[in-house]
Amino acid sequence: LFQEKKRLTIGNIARQWEIQQNRTALEASLNKDTENKPCQINGSAAYVFPEESRSLDTILSGAVQGLSVLESHLVEVEGDTLGLYGAGALECLDRNWSVQTAGMIATVSFMFIEFDEIVQVLAKLKTKFPNCVHLKFKETNLVALQQFNALAETHRMEQLTVDPQGNPVVNFTLWKYYVLFRLNHFNLQKINGVKVTENDVVKAERLFGILAYVASSDLPHYHMLSLFGESRRKQFHYLLEGKGKKSGVGSEESSDNRRSGGESTARATLNYMTKDFHMEKLEEIKERKAFCQTYVENLVKEAADINMKNESLQKLWPQMFIELVRDAVVEIHNKNSYMKLCLQRITDQKQ
Predict the structure, then answer these.
(1) How far apart (Å, rounded) are the C-alpha atoms in residues 301 and 306?
(2) Residues 30-66 pLDDT 10s
(3) Domain covering 1-18+71-239+263-269, topology
(4) Please, which residues have CB within 8 angstroms of residue 253's CB and are 6 or more apart in sequence?
(5) How far apart, in whole angstroms, are the C-alpha atoms of residue 85 and residue 8?
(6) Of 155, 148, 162, which is closest to residue 204 (Cα–Cα)?
């Protein structure tokens, strides 16, 4: 009975996931192509017309509502593996796990969950499951190499498994080498069940080593410092002061690793930003741009007003000077009255 319920629940989660992916693909295709051109949905061609989009969206919404009466996520502990099915399963990381169970978990498997949602809970794995050394991803929409940057947030990792199903990133020929390069500080032992060799690590460094160097050299120093904790800031200052530079970039990286016991300073600049966070940043940049534009416009207006007043003064000054001299001569023409006026002014000031 339990196995049957589990099978039905996973099947329901898989269908909800597929419907959500169809919705995403449909919305993307409608945004990119408003003309009557075929779009790809889960590998099949379908002609989508603007007037039909609302009805299709209604159908998809109805399908999700119909499935929601069943379980929408599943949390399963089997041996030393914690299986998380569906986005709702991530909430289990906030529960109070027994010390025995938490210490037993060596593998955490994510299925039918958006990677961007997984990123938000990676830090919790450090404290919840201190002995976790293996992460598995299946149907998580891993689509870009930079997404692997987020895995640097975990405290340790010996194995990584990325199932081709629902993770297009594995179609990239060099994806394993990028993982080895970016997560070098973990000293990964296996990727997708295949043992990592020393030659793999060397090749990864040769392929992507320049990437970290370029990324770190393009960032201003204040931005670099914001990426690190206090100990890492001291290391960065150590590099800026020129200590150890004689050995070149490669030796700097290795010495940096030895001092920190973690990821190198240059690699730390290769991070991943989720879509929501990226949109927040764009909105923040937009607001800053508007503020700066208004501020500069006000400065320009103030400068223009000052310049206009200065030009007016230059035109009026000759006549003003003549009038000032004339008034002064008239005022001191009668010495007695002028002296009385001066005494009166002094008396008024004292009072």
Answers:
(1) 9
(2) 766 655 454 343 333 333 334 444 444 454 444 444 3
(3) 3.80.10
(4) 209, 212, 264, 265, 266, 267
(5) 12
(6) 148
